[in-house]
Design brief:
With about 140 residues, the chain is of the alpha+beta class. It folds into two domains: about 5-50, 2,3-Dihydroxybiphenyl 1,2-Dioxygenase, domain 1 (Roll), CATH 3.10.180.10; about 60-135, 2,3-Dihydroxybiphenyl 1,2-Dioxygenase, domain 1 (Roll), CATH 3.10.180.10. It contains two helices and ten strands, in the order E-H-E-E-E-E-E-E-H-E-E-E. Strand 5 and strand 6 (about 65-70) form a beta hairpin.
Amino acid sequence: MSSKFHYAFKVKDIKSTVSFYHDILGCKLGRQTDHWVDFNFFGHQLSAHVSENIPPLDYCGKVDNLKVPIPHFGCLLSTSDFNTTKEKLQANNIHFIIEPQTRYKGKKGEQQTLFILDFSNNPIEFKCYANENDVFV
């Protein structure tokens, strides 16, 4: 079995969370109660837990002259999955807090990236590398 990550995070409610992750992104629903829901997030397990204490965003990260929200989570996708995800987000009028773009063009680590917020204001990054071997370079 290959390794998978599990990430538990805060959301404002179950209904909008299911709408975002299941209806828009197409993540398969897992177990669910009135207070939490699991999703298959590109083969990984996300557990969204309802909270009234969601911290404000902090754009303290600086990557390639862009301020990025920290913390954030996301997924490294194939180019095809990245483009499909970007199209789903655009079709549902999801605002890009960092527009889809190519970073480090022509260099090691070249990648396409985009940042969005889910309906609970959680920052998410999706990216794909021009060369998968450059992920940790």
